[in-house]
């Protein structure tokens, strides 16, 4: 498969100016990018600038900490889909997944209903500061709740990302599509992560990537 098939470009830096955002999106019109993720306040602008492309546009919910109430998450999900998002990435706090099982179950039921009505919802967990046993517990919870797309980290180091790919791929199982976020990976690193259990990647820049390069799938 091509690199472009497994890469999602993340334009989620709140410090990005409108001018920079526009320049980046206009540049994407001539690149084989499959999808991008933007902040909610940039969603409608992204839809306008990429209207003549096939690029899917997603946005983040309760980002970056995931500490909002279930009601707040649900409201933002509906608002984002109404604004034209093709898919959503909702942040869930590790605390809920590890210590608040009843709340996690309620969230799962809420998101399932919303996804049935609106579209794809992915789950994001910031794994950078978790201990190994916590990661295993979260992976098992994700599997139990039936969430099928897990987004990990927010630009972690390559070595940590590789370790996480191994843990979560094993403990969450094949039914969960595992996305690893990295700042500026190269094609060789993506290949190693695929072999370690990752399925796809979020990147903050395409600088080191040849989107037409071929990757070997396990």
Automatic annotation (TrEMBL):
Domain of life of the native organism: Bacteria
Name used for this protein in its record: Deoxyribose-phosphate aldolase
């Amino acid at each position: 498969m091509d690199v472009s098939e497994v890469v999602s470009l993340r334009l989620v830096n709140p410090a990005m100016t409108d001018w920079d955002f526009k320049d980046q999106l206009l540049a994407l019109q001539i690149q084989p990018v499959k999808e991008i993720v933007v902040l909610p306040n940039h969603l409608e602008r992204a839809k306008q600038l990429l209207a003549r492309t096939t690029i899917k546009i997603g946005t983040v919910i309760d980002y970056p900490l995931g500490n909002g109430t279930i009601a707040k998450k649900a409201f933002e999900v509906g608002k984002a889909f109404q604004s034209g998002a093709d898919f959503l990435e909702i942040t869930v706090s590790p605390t809920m997944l590890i210590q608040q099982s009843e709340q996690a179950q309620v969230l799962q039921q809420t998101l399932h209903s919303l996804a049935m009505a609106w579209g794809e919802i992915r789950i994001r967990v910031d794994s950078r500061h978790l201990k190994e046993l916590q990661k295993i517990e979260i992976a098992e919870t994700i599997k139990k709740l039936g969430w099928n797309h897990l987004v990990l980290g927010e630009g972690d180091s390559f070595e940590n990302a590789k370790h996480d790919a191994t843990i979560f791929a094993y403990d969450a199982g094949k039914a969960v599509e595992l996305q690893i976020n990295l700042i500026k990976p190269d094609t060789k690193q993506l290949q190693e992560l695929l072999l370690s259990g990752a399925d796809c990647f979020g990147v903050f820049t395409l600088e080191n990537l040849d989107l037409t390069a071929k990757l070997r799938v396990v």
